[in-house]
Amino acid sequence: MSAPAPARPDLPLGMVTGVPIEFDRIGRSFGSVHALHEVSLTVAAGEIVALLGPSGSGKSTLLRICAGLDEPTTGDVRFDGTSQLGLPPHRRDVSMVFQHFALYPHKSALDNLTLALRHGRGLPKAAAVARARETLAMLGIAELAGRRPPQMSGGQRQRVAIGRALATRARVILLDEPMSGLDAQLRVELRVEIVGLLRSLGTTALFVTHDQAEAMAVGDRVAVLGEGRLQQIGTPDEIYDRPATRFVAAFVGSPPMNVWDGHWHDGRLRADGFDVPAPAGAAAFGVRPEHLTLDLGALDVDSPGAGTPGVGTPGVGTPGVGTPGVGTPGVGGLDGGSLDVGVPEQPGSLRGVGGSEQLRLSGEVVVSERLGAERTVHVRTRAGVLAVRVNAALALTPGAFVVLRAPTSALTYFAPDGDRLDHP
Ligand SMILES: Nc1ncnc2c1ncn2[C@@H]1O[C@H](COP(=O)(O)OP(=O)(O)OP(=O)(O)O)[C@@H](O)[C@H]1O
């Protein structure tokens, strides 16, 4: 039997040195299913990278390849420059935390950790017990030492499972949806703890999740996988503000970016309901819900004559509006529900003050959802239903007629293959 991977029992917790990981053009096929295509990704020593993607995008497959539980069909995975291909899991100095705890149910928390250290790391019993106790204390669950998993809550069990992974002081920790069985509040609490611990330990970590809020909160960088391809890797800000592809734009954000398809001609992208300046070759554009300003409807963009089928009754006040937007933060430019009246050059766009062009759309409120201090309003326009973020003080009711605006600088453009295009 081969020796276990090099353990560092001499190091106190907090002094583990993570290794850099390099995935080099990883491909993995299961028969005709291509789970991963040419995925190249480098994780720095001590970095936490969140692997984010919808179900079936290949996240777990990539993690399993990293752990040695699976081998790629093509490509290489290197730790600190050394290929790990062919090495079994126990030779890779990797610890894993799974969604389903995987604790021994008939053993106490202390024994679960001690066993991992003795058998996985070859520590003598006394050292293993001391390390296990130290880790439980570090996680704030010393009082659970004598309890068996069935005597613990889901959150406690997951803390023990995380403790077991951390106690081994592996240089790489892989977490596969570690909190998906827990309730929302506990998830938020636990993720704050996990991030704090991983940072203080200095291990390199890959954290798989399909929850974009969790990925953005946990990752130093977020790697977005879609259909087995790496769509983008970047800091949470980069992923949100500069999505590399339409897939990322439509996956990240709650609600995600509004995206419309159009036909490009002569520097403009057009479809029923909008006409905006766009870079050559654009096939779609998008705007984040918070970049749209919502005004209560009145005589404006799509005034009668401009033709606005099915978007309410302009010019007859503000039906269905609970709180007129006067002085309401986040509700722009209104005075008792009337707007500065302009004649649009094209449907869905307008020269604003100072000559800068704006996207303008009008429509009818379909649904208004209260989310803490904000509200997400879904508005049906000629271009389709879109989401807008407004201050929660603006109580809009279904049927209200509204006008939406955004500066064209807030628009994101996409090519036919989904890649983002830079502004004209
Ligand atoms: N052992 C296997 N045999 C056949 N197909 C597999 C196997 N493992 C994974 N796949 C397929 O590979 C693709 C990627 O699966 P994977 O589990 O990596 O996705 P995921 O992003 O982790 O999904 P989830 O979030 O649902 O766990 C899927 O189409 C899946 O059905």
From TrEMBL:
PROSITE patterns linked to this entry: ABC_TRANSPORTER_1 (PS00211), ABC_TRANSPORTER_2 (PS50893)
GO molecular function: ABC-type transporter activity; ATP binding; ATP hydrolysis activity
GO CC aspect terms: ATP-binding cassette (ABC) transporter complex, substrate-binding subunit-containing
Annotated keywords: ATP-binding, Cell membrane, Hydrolase, Membrane, Nucleotide-binding, Sugar transport, Translocase, Transport
Annotated InterPro entries: AAA+_ATPase, ABC_transporter-like_ATP-bd, ABC_transporter-like_CS, ABC_transpr_MalK/UgpC-like, Mo/tungstate-bd_C_term_dom, NA-bd_OB-fold, P-loop_NTPase
Lineage: superkingdom: Bacteria
Enzyme Commission number(s) of this protein: 3.6.3.-
Pfam short name (any one): ABC_tran
Domain ABC transporter: 21-252
Name of the protein in question: Sugar transport ATP-hydrolyzing subunit (Partial match)
